[in-house]
Every structure is written in structure tokens, then in C-alpha cells.
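INFO worker-7 received task bundle
INFO bundle size: 2
INFO processing item 0
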Amino acid sequence: MSDTDMTPEHGSMAAEAKSAHSLSYWQLVRKRFRKNRYGMMGLFLCCLIVFIALVPGFIAPYGPQTSDRSLLYTPPQWVSIYSTEEGFQRPFVNGFSEEMDPNTYAITFQSDPEKKSVIRFFTRGDEWSLLGISSTLHLFGTDEGSRVYLLGTDNLGRDVFSRMIWGTRISLLMGLMVMLAALVIGTIVGVTSGFFGGFYDLVVQRIVEFFKAFPDLPLYLALTAIIPRRADPMTVFVMFAAILVLLRWADLSRELRGKVISMRRLDYVRAAEAVGATNKRILFRHIVPNTSSHLIVWATFQLPEIILLESFLSFLGIGVQQPMVSWGLMLNQILDFQSFSAAPWMMAPVGMIIITVLAFNAFGDGLRDAMDPYSNV
């Protein structure tokens, strides 16, 4: 085809192909990822969740243990900007008046406009700290003497919304700790096993098969049973994270072993060996960098799985302990049907779990498609 016969469509395709050849691999990945709306939405939500985990004290109006014993099991308060008496005004919430059924003795809550609380932004409240810097500034709150409970209160009169925001830090920190530790261990074991082979590979793979032979849930329950219940909450947190790491690295090491075995036969690895490159240089300059895309995608999919696992075990009461706050530990307060029927709004952490899992899965899907050289994204 001559230049004169080339249509505008063929010209744009040729220009795009020419520009693609001048981009590096990671530039192409970034370009393809930006075109993936599902992945970009997941990235935005992931950044928002990380921001909440960094500054929960700023977003939450109250501390995780702040309570009002006179307001137990208070239902959520709806934010309004219009009242029939005063018309449009600043955002506000109405308080509740309690009424008891004389026959069933059940307590019901009725909206009481006389107990109106005006919501104000950037208010002062409970003290919180970040990296040793203390502050009393909160995103929103009410005037002194009044309260706002967007998601109601629990059995101790604590704000469910504030505790859910504070729980984001613990749940996400647990997921990141376990994922990073499993990533390091799995990468070291898998890469060295596939590269060196021989007797070392034989021994390592038998160890991996030993860990994979145990059913996950019974082993988690057995291991968490040996954690001392009276230990410091931070000690329990670290030991619980170590138990989760115990079985998370095995699958990654087996996957990387297969990839490294196939890479050992590639021309650039053989060329490096022929010129006398050391094993250390081959591993860190040729093998490990070429597994980075697999590691990144594995991490984005593993993180939500760990958050789900931690929430499930904490829900059973064998994970994070008080006074720490996590989403699973909050759900542990409604184990029985009676508590659930009295305060169904305490299921709110389920929404955060679902949003977090969907966000990281969307981000992982977008990365996987962007890193695929045959992707049409």
C-alpha cells in the first residue's frame, strides 16, 4: 500500500503502533490501564480506603471507645437539610425519644424534632494522632452537648460509624502485613527453588506440599487456640498475622517456581550464564524483575482475601481482640439473632468489607489486563 492509498484510519493505526514501539513496558501498562474504566474505578476506591485508614481520627466524629451509656442501640439518624417549620437550613439530624410497649416491654425510638443537632464541618472533638502528631480536628461533628450517630450505636452506646472508620485501619493493616510477608517468603522460596533445582528443589517442594496438605480453616482454628487470650492486644495481633502468613506463601512459591523453571531456558538467561554472570546477578537482574507483573497482580488479589479471612476469624472471636477495632470484631457483637434483631444497623461493616473486596478485585483485574501483552484494553 502506497502513502497515497493509505486511509486516515490506517494512518492513525500506524501512528499508534509507531508510538507504542517507543514506549517502555511500564509506560504501555500505564497507558492500557488508564483506558480500563473498571480498573480506574477500583484504583480510586482503593486510594480512598487507604486514605481512610491513614486518618480515621479526622473522618470519624468520635473515638472508637467513646460511648454514651444513655443511648444504647440507638438507630441511625438521617441527615436532613429541610424542615417544615424553618425550611432549608444547615444539615441536621433529629434525636430520638424512647417509648416502651407495656405488653412486650420492647423499646422503640421515635424521631424527636425538639432534639435537633446541627452538623458542622471541621469541628473540634476527641483527640487523635498520626505519626506522633496529635489533633482534635474532625471532618464533621455537632455542637457541644449534642450527638450525631449516622449508623446508630451499639450495645455500649458507641458510634457504629466511627468504629467502622477506625476499624478500616486495623483490617487494612492486617491485610497489608500478611500480604507483604507472604509475598517476600513466597518469592524467596519459589525463585530459589526453581533456579537452583536439584536436591534443594526436592526438599523445598516437599516442605511446600506439607504446608498445603493441611485444610486451611481447621489449622487456623487450631493455631489461634494456642494464642494466650490474656496477652497484650498488639501481641495477639502480631501472632494472629503470623498464623495467617503461615499458609499464604505456599501457593505463590509454587507458581513462581514454575515460571522460573521456564525462564532458565530463555536466551537472555543462557547468554548471562555464558558471559560468566553470577547467580546473584542473574536472579536480581533477569529472573526476579520478569516476575514483577505476576507478583503485583497476586498481591492485589491476595489482599482482599486476607481481609475476608481476618473478618471471618475475628467474627468467630479468635482474631483481633479488644480494645482494637476491626470490621470482623464489630460483627462479633451480633453473633446471636436477638442482638441482630435489636440493632440490624450493626451489620454496617459488611458494607465496608464488600466495597473493599470489590475495589481491590477491580484494581487487580485492571492491572492483569494492562500487563497482558495480548490484551485489547
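INFO item 0 finished
INFO processing item 1
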Amino acid sequence: MTKKLPAHFNSIAVHGGLVQAGATRAASPPLERAASWSPETMAELDDLFEGTADGFYYGRDRSPTPALLERALSALEDGRFTVAYATGMAAIAGVLSIAGQGKRVLATPDLYGKTYHLIQAWLPESGAEIRFVSGQNQQAISHHLKTWQPDLMVVETLSNPLVKVCDLGWLVEQAKAAECKLMVDNTFASPYLSRPSSLGADYTVESLTKYINGHGDVMGGTVTVLDAVDYRALFQQRSTFGATLDPQAAWLTLRGLRTLGLRMERQCANAAALASYLAAHVAVQQVYYPGLESDPGHATAQKLFAKCGYGGMLAFELTEPSRQRVWQVMDKLQMALRAPTLGDITTMVSYPAQASHRALSAEQRAAVGISAGLIRVSVGIEAIEDIIADFEQALQ
């Protein structure tokens, strides 16, 4: 008998990877590292190749432990199908491959730097036409959807690195009316804060490397979809490009997933406290965090996910906006780690101009608001008193 999933987020996160067939009744998700499986008959193998039977035959296409993770993520995201990839960028490239090549693509400019570069530099080689428009400019989005009629729109729930908020409900409505597919990179929010699939987004992308795993020892990404045709296209694309998630990474991610809600609750609370502290600091010119009432996206963020918090990511601008000053502050931090990633249980800082958006020219960075004085912070689960004390001594 198939076990029914519980109704609440934390319960689904804990039990999602345990809903499985088999006689062992393991109390934790099993790790299976086989590269291939031998069906009993050639007819059964043929059905597996055709995709008309549920099972396993070759690890590049599908294997048990990643399949458990895909099932768990589908439940958490309120989607029908999930395809797990070797990295978050492989997941994004997968969507762009099936929905963007040779098509018209409308994207927000304030994307993760590698995503921006992929859309701006790689997609046009396939004959795709690209236009960028602010995710907060609803008038411009409506105009482009009606007059230009794009095939795909690409947005982030919370943008990297300025944590700008998109009104996902409105975007889904507009995209559906224009018959335009919508891809949402939900990495900064995680399914704890936002589930774009539940609103009708066609593709919800997560970087497993970040909050979902949460412990800095995994690379991976997922795409959750609502449509079986989209799922099959992504499945075939992943197999063809060999971008399949390794079973060990899937197993570690399943372990991290079980505490996602607890970790995010603490990280949201810590980020809100740190943002308030930095906003009052004389060495800080501006703080970007949607939990602050002064933030332009605060009202939208309240509507989308205020019941859970406003996320664990923030960015701030120094009053002395120079690379020399940024490096001085970051080098003085004693507990926060200097690392080009996010979503771990430890507090981490990065310099977007040097790391996430390094591939952009100075002019492109300026156009999306990334200055020489900007620091991005991924707030961890440490005691907030220690986090604030660390930034206090570094900013002196």
C-alpha cells in the first residue's frame, strides 16, 4: 500500500524520502550506487527504455536514490514531476535547452550572473531572441507579453544578489494569458518560503547546493514541472547531456532536506535581525532585505511569504563604496566565511562583483545595481549575538 504524505511542510520534508516500496522498511532513505539494473525479461526492459514502465535500467537515466529525492521535492514544491540534475546551472540549462533555444525569451536582468550570461551569450547562438525587463515593472512586462509574445519568461523569486521580490501570482496569471512558459529560479527562497508550482509556474528551479541540502557538501539542482510533456523533454535532455545527479549527492540532500524547515526558520530570524542592525550602522549606506519596511519589495514579500519569514539572504552597500574597503571588511570577519555560495548553516559573505557576477562587464553590473561597495550575506544558524558581533568588529 502506498503511504499517504502528511499535510504540513516540515512533516513532508521529514517523511517525503521515506515513501517507497520494498520490504526493508528503512527508517532513513537508502543509498543505492548501482550503475545498471537487469530486468527479468526483454519485454520489461523495452518498456523501461520506452518510458511506459516505472523502474530502473541505467543510472544515467534514472536510479533509486535520486528518484526518492525527486519524489520528495515534487511533494514539497506542489508539483507533479521533478528532474534532478548534477548542478543548479545544469538544471537551468536544461530548461533553456527545451524551452528557450530558437525562441523568444523575456528575462529579468537581475539574475544570477551565470544565468544572465547563459541567456545573453549562449541562447542567441541558437537563434533565440532575448529581451530583458525589470521583474518589478509590471507595465513593461504586460507590454512585452502582449506585443512581443515571448515563448519563455525567466525570473527569480528573490533576485541574486539584491533580493528583489517578484509578484509570482501576478506573473503566472500574465504568462498564462499570453501562452508564455514561466521559469522561476526559487533558490534564494527555497520551497520553505515559496512554491511557484503551486501558483502555476511551468518550471520551478532549485539549486540543491544551497538551502535544500544546507550543509555545503553537495552539488545539485532540480526542475519541478506540472506537465508530463515538459517532464519527458527534461528527462531526455538530462540523459542526452549526461547531467544526472549522483546517488551519493541525492542521499546527502535527502538527509539535509529533512531539516530544511527548522534551518530556514532560524536563518530567516537571524537575517531579519542582522538586516535591522546593519540598516542602523553608520558604515552602511543601504541594506537590501525584503523584511525591512523600507525595502521597495516589502509589501509584495508580505503577500508572498510573510508567514514564514523573508529569507536568509541580504546584501548591503558600504558608505565607502570601493573594492579596497569591501575587502578590508570581509578580511576582518572572523566567524563568517568568505565563500562564493549560500544557504549553508554557516554565515557566508561574498563579493558579487568578484564572484557571482564576475562574468558581467562593469557596465552590465552597474545596469543591474551591483556596485563596487556591495556585499552579499547568506545568514547562518549561529547565535545572532555572535553574528552581529562579528560584523560589528569588521565594520569598525
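INFO item 1 finished
INFO post-check item 1: The chain has a mean pLDDT of 93.
INFO post-check item 1: The radius of gyration is 21 Å.
INFO worker-7 idle
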